[in-house]
Design goal:
It comes from Thermostichus vulcanus str. 'Rupite'. This is DUF4340 domain-containing protein. The protein is about 25% helix and about 35% strand. With about 475 residues, the protein is an alpha+beta fold. It folds into three domains: about 140 residues, no CATH class; about 130 residues, no CATH class; about 140 residues, Immunoglobulin-like (Sandwich), CATH 2.60.40. Strands 4-3-2-1-6-7-8-9-5 form a nine-stranded antiparallel beta sheet, with no helix packed on it. Strand 7 and strand 8 form a beta hairpin. Helix 8 packs antiparallel against helix 10. It starts with a helix and ends with a helix.
Length: about 475
């Protein structure tokens, strides 16, 4: 008896749950159907092949015409009028989605009993008109008039039907500006394809230099060979490779003088490597002109217009030789060093790496003439690799005199298969700074005195231990 009652109650519970689910599902379907019926337009956005946006202004009417590129996957659009340009997908997708979901807040029935009444809604001569043209069938047209009294909505007509009130939040997506619609790409290339580039700066201190790819890094080759700062060079090239305009003051490059581009403040020329598709790619060029309102005028070889860049972007493109040269005094990999010679005050020691041991935190070094006294050189390597020149000196008598008899001399001999060049460093203190002559750099470098003292302390410690043994 108990089991039978339980089964009956369980069946009733299941029936209630099922009934509630079916009722709720039916209610949702009804609501969806009502929402679909309430829409102004019933349009499949993927069938739209052309969009026209007509806007009245105090100057002259503007007609923006957009056309879907046939057979493009993913979908692409082009602007046909008032300019010809590639278009951005996002604002067009937003327009189409908003258009297809438009639902009136109020329908003013009888609003067309007297056609002159349209003037009260600004619909006798609409301020804006949007027309979507499908691949087949009649177009969908939305005429937009005045805002209502509290600007919470605007009056509109769908295909010359009744006047409706639509929430004002919809208007922004429906009426993107020409600038918002157009593709703002000024240059497009793969920075990995760059073989070399040249920079010419015509500012207060004019200069010209060239940088070439060397293996996985970069080398300044003109006006003289200098190691380049790979990080800053790659930042410059990555900025160029995705260069985007802020505005377009002129659609052609016919008259450059008003924008300071007849005598550019900076010019960059990029040479790309040959490829299977293009055996002799044309150089890419960029020129920067005058600055106005926090923006800098620019032209490129890949775009016909005069554009502007943010000043912060232009500053990266105007990097000078000092910005792009490597300020390190050494590039050391302890795993690739065969021997180190450290000298100070007439004392000298040569150390070689010991075979690595399981669980050892790093490389240990010893003098082969006095085995059994392993040394840690982590501080020397980290100090040298982190040291940066605050400036470089050429033909400086004081620095040259100081380095004739350096306080420290460090020599690093690489392993034969390392691919590294030998490195020699001569260091001497001078007041609150120190001079370094490095075989990695052709010029004398100036470094912090604290960096010199760290190296001096480590070298003297090793020499003292050598002398004590």
């Amino acid at each position: 008896m108990f089991k039978r009652t339980t089964l009956i109650l369980l069946g009733l519970a299941v029936a209630c749950i099922l009934g509630y689910f079916l009722f709720d599902n039916a209610q949702q379907l009804r609501q969806q159907a009502e929402a679909e019926r309430a829409k102004l337009f019933h349009v499949q956005t993927d069938t739209i092949a052309r969009i026209e946006i007509q806007q009245q202004s105090s100057d002259e009417p503007e007609l923006i015409v957009l056309e879907r590129v046939p057979d493009s996957d993913p979908t692409q659009w082009r602007i046909l009028s008032p300019i010809q340009s590639a278009a951005l997908d996002f604002p067009i997708s937003s327009l189409l989605n908003t258009f297809s979901r438009l639902t009136p807040e109020i329908t003013l029935e009888g609003s067309l009993d007297n056609p002159e009444d349209l003037a009260a809604f600004g619909l006798d001569n609409p301020k804006q008109q949007i027309t979507l043209m499908p691949q087949a069938g009649d177009p969908y047209r939305l005429s937009i008039g005045n805002d209502n009294f509290d600007r919470s909505g605007f009056y509109a007509r769908a295909n010359d039907g009744e006047v409706v009130l639509i929430a004002s939040a919809q208007k922004g997506s429906l009426l993107p500006s020409l600038l918002a619609l157009r593709d703002k790409t000024l240059l497009s290339f793969d920075s990995a394809d760059v073989e070399s580039f040249q920079v010419r700066l015509a500012e207060a201190d004019p200069e010209q230099f060239q940088i070439e790819r060397q293996g996985n890094g970069w080398q300044i080759t003109d006006p003289k060979r200098l190691p380049a700062d790979d990080t800053n060079v790659n930042r410059l090239l990555n900025t160029l490779a995705r260069l985007q305009a802020v505005e377009f003051p002129a659609e052609t490059q016919a008259d450059l003088a008003p924008y300071g581009l007849d005598n550019p403040s900076a010019q960059l020329t990029i040479k790309l490597a040959a490829s299977a598709e293009n055996s002799d790619p044309a150089p890419l060029t960029v020129a920067l002109g005058s600055e106005t309102n926090g923006q800098v005028h620019v032209i490129t070889s890949q775009h016909p217009a005069v554009a502007t860049l943010l000043t912060s972007t232009a500053d990266i493109l105007r990097s000078d030789l000092e910005d792009l040269r490597d300020h390190r005094i050494a590039r050391l990999n302890a795993n690739q060093i065969e021997a180190i010679t450290l000298a100070s005050e007439g004392e000298e020691i040569t150390l070689q790496p010991l075979p690595s041991e399981s669980g050892s935190p790093g490389i240990r070094w010893e003098n082969p003439d006095q085995p059994g006294q392993a040394q840690e050189l982590t501080s020397i390597f980290s100090t040298l690799n982190s040291a940066r020149a605050s400036e470089f000196l050429q033909d400086d008598p004081e620095a040259q005199k100081s380095l004739q008899d350096p306080t420290l001399r460090l020599t690093f001999r690489p392993k034969p298969d390392s691919g590294q060049d030998p490195l020699t460093l001569s260091l001497a203190p001078s007041g609150l700074r120190a001079y370094v002559q490095s075989s990695y750099q052709p010029d004398i470098a100036v470094i912090d005195l604290s960096t010199f003292h760290t190296l001096e302390t480590e070298v003297n410690r090793l020499l003292e231990q050598e002398e004590a043994s």
